[in-house]
């Protein structure tokens, strides 16, 4: 029997939004629906068995699926009534290994994702070549993000120290975008240059204080425009940044210092802006990867066939993005609510779901 592709995709999306964490539970969710709900999804002549759902999903192009679903989420996300004058799209980049998933030869699957930190939508995700690492996947990820947004002009990408690469800075600049990266010992010359800047003579640009869970933390940001001939040993860098984090826990004080560079000049990236943007990079770990692990039990899912591991991760990204754009702060609670109200969920999804096959 043949089934509509849009119906199969719709049930996969809805089931994961309702908490399904594997291909088997996607099928279970579909089979547990009443006839009216199955009709809503487009299954008017019976529902597929688990092997049919599994075969389709594991054969999908995961990057294309991610682009389609990210575009769909963005299209249905309400635009802000007023856009702040200094608003800038900030995209966090980070990788995650699917610990339970394996390829045919036993190697683990590693995915590199780009998260819009304002909306909580994963704009793109690419599978890292098992014979390489995240560095070679950076440009393909930018390509995928650009397909969703249309242009990268003015966008700020934030990445960890692994991506403090001259080639990355050139790739981003060529697309008229900007890059904010941390600098560690993997770039020893650059790290020494930043560390030796006269930080004691540079006034603090921004300082924040937080309390919670028996901890007090102060974060002080200093930023300086790079006037030295040739700047520093990193392409397109406009400012050097130092962040000092001071924590007091149970009466004990600890201090940590981090150095970063950004390709935006001071007029477009104040110390307060930098403080906000740098903290947003944690969104991809705390609000995406952690949720996939805890709520959807991703590391326990032993997907091994075809593009299955990346496809199911893309569906989880979509579910999290959907709930975030609907105002949810607790994704586990949001999935339980969606599971209790399948008719409402299906109606909301299918009323704006792509009809192309």
Automatic annotation (TrEMBL):
PANTHER family: H REPEAT-ASSOCIATED PREDICTED TRANSPOSASE (PTHR30298), PROTEIN YBFL-RELATED (PTHR30298:SF0). Pfam families: DDE_Tnp_1, DDE_Tnp_1_assoc. One of its GO terms (molecular function) is DNA binding. Residues 1-24 form the signal peptide. NCBIfam families: transpos_ISAs1. The keyword Chaperone does not apply. Residues 2-73 form the H repeat-associated protein N-terminal domain. Keywords: Signal. It comes from Pseudosporangium ferrugineum. Residues 89-319 form the Transposase IS4-like domain. The keyword Signal applies. One of its GO terms (biological process) is DNA transposition. It comes from the Bacteria. This is IS4 family transposase.
């Amino acid at each position: 029997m043949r089934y509509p592709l849009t119906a199969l995709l719709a049930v996969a999306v809805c089931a994961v939004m309702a908490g399904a964490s594997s291909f088997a539970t996607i099928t279970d969710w579909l089979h547990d629906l009443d006839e009216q709900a199955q009709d809503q999804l487009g299954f008017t002549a019976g529902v597929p068995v688990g092997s049919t759902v599994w075969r389709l999903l594991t054969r999908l192009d995961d990057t294309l699926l991610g682009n389609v679903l990210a575009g769909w989420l963005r299209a249905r996300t309400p635009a802000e009534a007023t856009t702040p004058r200094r608003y800038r799209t900030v995209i966090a980049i980070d990788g995650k290994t699917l610990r339970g998933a394996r390829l045919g030869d036993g190697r683990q699957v590693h995915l590199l994702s780009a998260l819009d930190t304002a909306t909580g939508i994963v704009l793109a995700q690419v599978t890292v070549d098992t014979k390489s690492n995240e560095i070679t996947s950076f440009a393909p990820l930018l390509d995928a993000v650009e397909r969703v947004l249309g242009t990268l002009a003015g966008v700020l990408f934030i990445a960890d120290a692994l991506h403090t690469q001259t080639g990355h800075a050139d790739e981003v600049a060529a697309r008229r975008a900007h890059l904010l990266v941390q600098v560690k010992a993997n770039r020893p010359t650059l790290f020494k240059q930043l560390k030796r800047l006269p930080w004691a003579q540079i006034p603090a640009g921004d300082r924040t204080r937080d309390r919670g869970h028996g901890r007090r933390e102060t974060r002080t940001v200093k930023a300086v425009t790079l006037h030295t001939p040739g700047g520093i040993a990193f392409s397109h860098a406009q400012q050097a940044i130092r962040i000092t984090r001071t924590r007091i826990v149970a009466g004990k004080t600890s201090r940590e210092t981090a150095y970063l560079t950004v390709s935006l000049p001071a007029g477009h990236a104040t110390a307060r802006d930098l403080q906000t943007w740098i903290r947003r990079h944690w969104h991809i770990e705390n609000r995406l990867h952690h949720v996939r692990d805890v709520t959807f039990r991703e590391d326990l899912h032993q997907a091994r066939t075809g593009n299955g591991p990346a496809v199911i991760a893309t569906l989880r990204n979509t579910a999290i993005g959907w709930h975030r754009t609907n105002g949810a702060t607790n994704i586990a609670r949001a999935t339980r609510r969606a599971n209790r109200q399948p008719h409402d969920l299906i109606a909301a999804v299918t009323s704006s779901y792509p009809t192309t096959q």
